[in-house]
Design goal:
Shape of chain A: globular
Shape of chain B: flat
Structural class of chain A: mainly alpha
Largest interface: A-B, 57 and 69 residues
Helix content of chain A: over 70%
Strand order of the largest sheet of chain A: 1-2
Order of helices and strands of chain B: HHHHHH
Radius of gyration of chain A: 22 Å
Strand content of chain B: under 5%
Oligomer: heterodimer
Chain lengths: ~500, ~150
């Protein structure tokens, strides 16, 4: 009864004139910012924070939520058209979306992404509403042991993500974990690997790594291929129309990855990035033709795209009910909530039920807006392809610099951005996959914390990791996913 | 040939891991915790050495085509280095001359250098974008980008 009342109250807020207006503004702003190569939800939300000072908390949250899933949606457009994901959550979208665009099927890829996002987002909001209390209590029962096992599984999964060498993928992941150890250790306050540089004490910002490894490295390749006019050839993004066969192929992954993405979004530490990667991997593992993945497979596009949007809504469960951000982006959202004077947590339901239900109700409308706004606008969105390459290169560099500077106000971070750009470029030249690096970088801090918390509980005894059945299950899955690519390689060797 | 590029990388990685490990062992101990801040770095350092050795002896995953596709010619490298130098100069001058001036100059000359010859469009874009963005950030969003020598 309480939930029904809450939802009705929420819809009253969401369907008010102001509510609809702020959903619209948030979704539109988020889509535009997320679409710009190199700019993702973190930047979008961070940019919007100054705007919400003094606003009504519920409407402000409605706006921010709109920016968030709008940016995730817009990010997939940049992934598909330019192979330049603004956020790690849409990296997996580019694996099959970009090849599709290169084959002249950009329109279809964008339409598929829009439908997948809508489905994932909507299903996930329903689940958020129905299962929020129950799922939240499951996540509450997770201790550091389970968290560590979960994140370990996320990282193990990346070893099978890479197309080429599993060893190179693992090296990339380890380097990412190393990069995140730079800075003051959160538990003991020991500065690590800072070389006495005060700018490194707080560690390296996620945005610096993400923009450097992906956007700046992409710029380097754009520079190299600036005379290649294949992009202007794909000016015609092709038909948006999907055939019955396409829909049939989409149905399975849509059904599978909406709930999966939601669950991954609920688990703190997992979020849209892990959700999209795990969805992509499982879809590839169980596909009848895994060879097609990475070459423009529809299922390879639907899976991560459904999942990351489902996870976006799922991420609100721990953020709102436990006060734990599940990702870098929701951490920024947490900052926004604190600015508004709201302390998210179990008390939120008692003190500000209108905030929770207002956000839930606005998400229904927001997802509908995304679909209605974006399907007809796709041909115009795709005009981004017509920007001459030299101009695009200069402007992307400019946006990266603005993005980093407006978060840290520090020129030192801009030099770091350039360094990570060089690393990203070298990675691509020597076919080291960059996604494991960024995934490890996102998870690394939390992973180390939970490892050490667990060992502190057990007073240094590693056996604690084998005392939780959930953790054992997660470790077993990790080991299987480590072993899989090696077996695959061996099989291929034998076949040759 | 191909093997040697992977092998060179694996040697670089081992050197990196050793340096990282040396620094890890120099981390000051913190006496009141059962697991200290050096646990994870040490584990990572040894893990990287093992993986790099693995890479040294595997080196089979690159095909001849990949290599040629990714090979950078000397003239291209020069273009890349020039752009990198421009970005470096951009960053270096950002807080000296201010966002608007440096960005206008960077966008215009970088686009021009990379072969965009439409001067009118180039000038319009390189002036409009920085000015509008500067206005939005500084006055609408109150995120202050460096003003530099300009008075507003």
């Amino acid at each position: 009864m309480n939930a029904m009342q809450g939802l009705l109250q929420g819809f009253q807020i969401a369907f008010s004139l102001e509510g609809i207006m702020f959903v619209l503004i948030g979704v539109a702003a988020g889509t535009l910012i997320g679409m710009l190569p190199g700019l993702g939800p973190i930047t979008a939300i961070a940019i919007m924070i100054p705007m919400i000072y003094g606003m009504d908390p519920t409407l402000a949250m409605v706006l921010m939520a709109g920016v968030y899933y709008g940016a995730v949606f817009g990010g997939s457009t940049a992934s598909i058209l330019l192979n330049a994901p603004g956020i790690s959550g849409t990296v997996a979208t580019a694996f099959d979306g970009y090849p599709m665009a290169q084959q002249g099927k950009a329109g279809q890829a964008l339409a598929i992404a829009a439908i997948s996002s809508f489905t994932g987002g909507t299903v996930s909001v329903v689940l958020l509403m129905l299962f929020a209390p129950a799922l939240a209590s499951v996540a509450v029962s997770f201790g550091p042991v389970e968290y560590f096992a979960l994140m370990f599984m996320g990282l193990a999964a990346i070893s099978s993500l890479s197309e080429g060498s599993a060893i190179k993928a693992l090296i990339s992941g380890v380097l990412g974990l190393m990069a995140v150890t730079i800075g003051i250790d959160a538990q003991t306050g020991t500065p690590r690997f800072t070389f006495g540089n005060a700018n490194l004490l707080e560690g390296i910002d996620f945005l610096v790594v993400a923009l450097g490894l992906f956007a700046i490295a992409e710029v380097a390749f754009l520079v190299k291929n600036r005379n290649d006019d294949s992009l202007s050839k794909t000016q015609n993004i092709g038909s948006l129309k999907l055939t019955k066969k396409d829909f049939k192929e989409m149905r399975g992954p849509l059904l599978r990855h909406s709930p999966l993405g939601f669950i991954m979004g609920v688990l703190p530490g997992a979020g849209a990035t892990v959700a999209s990667f795990i969805s992509y991997i499982t879809e590839k593992r169980f596909a009848k033709k895994p060879d097609e993945f990475g070459k423009g497979a529809i299922k390879g596009l639907v899976a991560p795209e459904t999942s990351n949007n489902a996870a976006t809504s799922g991420a609100f469960v721990p953020l709102l009910s436990l006060g734990i951000p599940g990702s870098g982006t929701t951490a920024v959202m947490l900052g926004a909530l604190l600015v508004l004077g709201i302390n998210p947590g179990p008390l939120l339901f008692q003190d500000h039920p209108d905030v929770f239900w207002g956000v839930v109700a606005s998400m229904y409308i927001g997802n509908l807006f995304l679909l209605v706004l974006n399907l007809p606008l796709i041909p115009y969105i795709a005009k981004i392809l017509k920007i001459p390459r030299p101009l695009l290169i200069s402007l992307v560099v400019m946006f990266c610099i603005i993005g980093v500077y407006s978060i840290s106000f520090n020129v030192f971070d801009l030099y770091l951005l350039l360094i990570f750009g060089v690393i990203g470029y070298l990675f691509r030249i020597y076919s080291f996959p960059a996604p494991p690096f960024i995934l490890a970088f996102v998870l690394g801090g939390m992973m180390e914390q939970s490892l050490r918390q667990a060992l502190t509980i057990s007073n240094g005894n590693f056996m604690i990791f084998l005392e939780s059945p959930i953790a054992i299950g997660l470790f077993a899955v990790s080991i299987l996913s480590f072993a899989f690519p090696f077996f695959r390689n061996r099989k291929e060797k034998k076949a040759n | 040939m191909l093997k040697s590029s992977d092998r060179k990388i694996s040697l670089v990685l081992i050197a990196l891991a050793v340096g990282y490990l040396i620094l890890s062992y120099q981390l000051p101990p913190y006496p009141f915790v059962p697991v200290d801040s050096d646990l994870m770095p040490k584990a990572l350092g040894y893990l990287l050495i093992i993986l790099a050795i693995g890479l040294f002896f595997s080196g089979k995953n690159e095909s001849e085509e990949d290599k040629q596709e990714n090979a950078t010619s000397k003239s291209e490298l020069l273009v890349l280095l020039t752009v990198t130098a421009m970005v470096l100069l951009y960053i270096f001058m950002l807080e000296v001359l201010g966002f608007v001036i440096v960005t206008v100059l960077f966008v215009f000359f970088c686009s021009w250098f990379l072969g965009y010859k439409n001067f009118k469009v180039n000038a319009a874009v390189s002036i409009l974008f920085p000015v509008i963005l500067y206005y939005i950030f500084n006055y609408l969003l109150q995120i202050t980008l460096p003003g530099g020598i300009l008075p507003f």
